[in-house]
Protein 1
Amino acid sequence: MTTTAHRICPLCEACCGLELELDGDRVTSVRGHDADVLSRGFICPKGAALGELQDDPDRLRAPLVKRDGAFVEVSWDEAFAEIDRRLPPLIAQHGAASVAMVLGNPTAHKAGLLLYGARLTRAIGTPNVFSASTLDQMPKQLAAGWMFGHWLSVAVPDLDRTDLLVVLGANPVASNGSMWTVPDFKGKAKALRARGGQLIVIDPRRTETAAIADRHLTIRPGGDAFLLLAIANTLFAEGLVRLGRIEPHVAGLDDLRAAVEGFTPERVAARCGIAAEDIRALARQLATTERAALYGRIGTCTQEYGTLASWLVDVINALTGHLDVPGGAMFPKAAAFAANTLGAPGKGKGISVGRRRSRVSGAPEVFGELPITCLAEEIETPGDGQIRAAIVVAGNPVLSAPNGPRIAAALAKLELMISFDIYLNETSRHAHVILPAFNSLAEPHFDVAFPQLAWRNVARYSPALLAPPAGHPAEWEMLVRLIGIVRGKGAATDIAALDDELTADDVARTVGPAAPQLLAQVAHLRGPDRLFELALRGGPYGDLFGARAGGLTLDAVRAAPAGIDLGELAPRIPELLRTPSGKVELAPPPLVADVARARADLDRPVPPLVIIGRRHLRSNNSWMHNIPTLAAGKFRGALLVHPDDAARTGVRDGGRARVSRDGRAIDVTVEVTRDISPGVISLPHGWGHGQAGTRLAIAAERPGANLNAILDDTLRDPLSGNAVLGGVAVELAPL
Ligand SMILES: Nc1nc2c(c(=O)[nH]1)N[C@H]1C(S)=C(S)[C@@H](COP(=O)(O)OP(=O)(O)OC[C@H]3O[C@@H](n4cnc5c(=O)[nH]c(N)nc54)[C@H](O)[C@@H]3O)O[C@H]1N2
Ligand SMILES: Nc1nc2c(c(=O)[nH]1)N[C@H]1C(S)=C(S)[C@@H](COP(=O)(O)OP(=O)(O)OC[C@H]3O[C@@H](n4cnc5c(=O)[nH]c(N)nc54)[C@H](O)[C@@H]3O)O[C@H]1N2
Ligand code: SF4
Ligand SMILES: [Mo]
């Protein structure tokens, strides 16, 4: 029997609402859900392939345990019994720090993994927590934390109402937006231009986004902080600073002015590869356009000055009067889970970072995490606190983190590795136990993080659509079972009872003596649903457990399959602020101090050739290369080379070439194109399949090369610990 159902897409930050046709348990068609309040019918080829993802014959259907070096399928009870035999004794002997938690990107897209993964981390109590955040957005979170008092108080462009959007180091036409949930960016950008507005893209490559822009400025990789310092400098020098409505709530303007002194457009032009007159014109255009927003993403984060650049993006939005106003950069107000809607408004504890340091490199902790580039050395280096076991949740660091081969070798040495993964891939092949999810459609979903970054305020819920085969636990149940094992309750924990206990503890921690009363009101729910209900009802639009008539409840959101529209973004300063001063901190001391590092680096010579990454609409980081319709067609893992560089190095279009750095090398297929700047080459990350012991038949046919095999795990933004994933010097030679 065919049924129609609706679902939030679990694949990327756009979080599109999908309309599925189901024949029993099989997905027979996927379309955009026209009525969805967030995405309004938009869909991309990845979302359309959700059915294929479920049907993939290589997808794991049962837990695997490694015995004598080979994986065997076991029952769920056996898998957990294996973990129970090995994990608690290891913790008892070597301490909690001997277990690493490694959280990958899909953790953010699956509420069960996100909410219960955090509980498992707490239950183990390990300081060794690593995630994709330090390959991605940690700089943006840290800058936001220092400026606004919470790491998810991130301003996003109010695209529907702006007249000028400047995109720096992002390609939302391919990525569908990041730290900015904006399904159908392309449609919205076209609407901006149709109403007379402008789109400017600053990127070393003429990207799909640059192709639809009014203007494309090429930048030298890693030059963003310098460009932004010069824009800020120009705004002060030319008397263009207008803080606008946030003026009474801003601190640090004088310190900021002093910090950017000397960074004139002329002084930075060579460093960032943009002519002084272009920098000045951009500063003036931002300052004099009434509704404008500057948006920076991956390109601005995954570099040596990631936090500095992320901070300066918001600084420039503030200095030009575009922060927290319609048509500028605004703060969403999420219906649930947003810390910037909790507690007393307008003031808070702010953030604290660097409370401890990593054992080997001494990298500071940021928001409870250590840089993922420290993972291998923490496994390899003997001594107190050495990592001997890892729990990898939906992550593939062998392909996604710098010096992947070193990570693979380190993982192979672990006494115990547990992977939550749906494939036997480059990382999970090193596990001793693999716990595969049945299907995201079998679990209820509520976007925990992304409404805090969304172009519009909405509340949506996706109920479970499929029943898993008997005995196949939901991912949150697997995590609860692991928590039971860690707490010494054995492999056969009563999941419902332990879930009750965990939830009761959390509620008591947040609301104190009122906890029993609240819990009684949600006693009809279990697992993630109960957490959604608690967060929604206690949230800024919630019914406050009966105190606010007509407020949101999970039932109310569930009754609206297209979601509930909570309106366009509205100004939130000062209410949103959680800094100790109750102000927007324009010049946080660690960032002002970091400007000195940039100043000392102004005259760094330009290497002849540097490498950067890119993304493609039909690819998703290191996975989905095994999905037939996504893998079909032109190979998308080629190295882009400018004709001048091709001529200089002797590589040719369609030929093979070797890219090397510090004695490490990868072999790639070359595509010669004028879309990339001279002196820059581009290779997407997440490739390098076909490795021994993996089970990804389609991906192995055209494996591509692992960009991260030549990137360095020693290069980090010192403030955020984020990896440097581009702009590093490489050599190129024909094969
Ligand atoms: N050089 C370079 N490297 C980069 C980047 C770059 O731009 N350049 N980008 C970085 C960024 S932004 C990110 S976010 C990281 C991403 O890197 P990772 O965090 O490693 O995430 P993915 O590569 O998406 O791998 C996701 C893993 O989860 C598994 N998976 C998929 N669905 C499920 C599920 O439902 N349940 C479970 N348990 N597992 C599932 C997949 O099989 C895969 O193993 O890569 C980073 N690496
Ligand atoms: N189809 C698809 N969508 C995705 C993903 C995917 O793999 N595939 N991954 C998802 C994830 S995890 C994330 S984090 C987001 C990322 O989303 P985006 O931030 O939009 O990421 P990219 O598409 O990699 O765009 C980064 C751009 O920065 C440019 N760049 C590189 N170095 C520099 C630099 O130094 N300065 C400047 N100004 N630009 C530079 C690159 O040329 C590239 O065009 O995408 C998400 N969406
Ligand atoms: S853009 Fe594509 S992958 Fe991302 S949420 Fe929408 S349909 Fe899913
Ligand atoms: Mo990411």
Note: The first helix runs from residue 45 to 48.
Protein 2
Amino acid sequence: MNLKENDKKYIAGTYGRFNLALVRGKGSLAYDENGKEYIDLGTGIAVNSFGIGDEEWKKAVESQLDSIAHASNLYYTEPCVNLAEMICEKTGMSKVFFGNSGAEANECAIKAARKWGLVNKGEGYSTIITLKNSFHGRTVTTLAATGQDGFHTDFGPFTEGFVYAGADNIPEVEKLAKENKCCAVMMELIQGEGGIYVLSKEFVNGVLEIAKKENLLVIIDEVQTGNGRTGELYAYMNYGFKPDIFTTAKGLGGGLPIGACVFGEKTADVLTPGSHGSTFGGNPAVCAGACSILSRIDAQLLDGVRKKSEYIVSQLQNAKGVESISGMGLMLGIKPVRPKAEIIEECMRNGVLVLSAKDKIRLLPALNIPDSLLEKGIEILKKALADY
Ligand SMILES: *Cc1c(COP(=O)(O)O)cnc(C)c1O
């Protein structure tokens, strides 16, 4: 009724929403208030890993709600332990801290890296090298970690101790590592908000070498790339190395808020009792759902992710109105000839939800989107891309 007016009146004006209210959904289909159907190629920004209202995930959450939804971290609860064990067994990492968002996971990684620097390298070794065009969150510290000038206005002073190197600029990383008292380098392997920019293997290997030489922790932000999105469980697995810390969020919860900071051997015991915490972190209902999601991201599912990705690329790479395609797995960026806003509008009119990132159309469909819906959605997108 007055939803849109009341939203404008009562919700803080931080979001430029599309003119669309979603009221329900099932899998890769969403419905608006008039019952109009949309094929969802955005999954609420890589959150609904198995689509909207996935039955197994819902059962896991509901059954946990029936026993205990929240206990606080003063007491032992099972789902967060099961989830942490699953993450560690699937990655070879050692320990997990749970929060509620990507920004919170990154805050934890930054705190741990600074303490590691202090203990292992000495007073003042707190600087973290991040990359230009990166995105690490919206808190004052994760904004400081974000290497985009546009984020560094209006809300200062920002947290000190971040320096920025150009993505794919190895000499710049080396220079910053030598000139500053650094404890870590932190990066996304595919810059998501930065326009689906994939870091080259040469650059990543170069950074790993510098990190080894200069004794820096390697922190990988897998908030968007994690949990099967790129065709591997975590994006770093495409590059053949293991980070000292990785963070993840979005798709891990399958639709409920969660963030995880995952520590390798070097950093497993840096955080000690009282040094960090989160009231909702490791919430039993959220973690029960996340267990259901993570347990199903297996070799067969990942194979499907890669096949669906190949299908999208094959359909769009030489299509009219497409300048280039970037990304991996089901995290793809399409650089269009036509203004992106027009394409998004036309897709929406024709029943398809797509996202954007910088100057690209961004696709983040469910990992299990049925081929028939994917084909239909891509056909509609293809028409919108060509319609100029
Ligand atoms: C979305 C995102 C974040 C922030 O996550 P929130 O849950 O919104 O705090 C951090 N890093 C990357 C790479 C992201 O894509």
Note: The pocket of pyridoxal-5'-phosphate is lined by residues 101-103, 106, 135-137, 188, 192-193, 221, 223-224, 249-250 (CB under 6 Å).
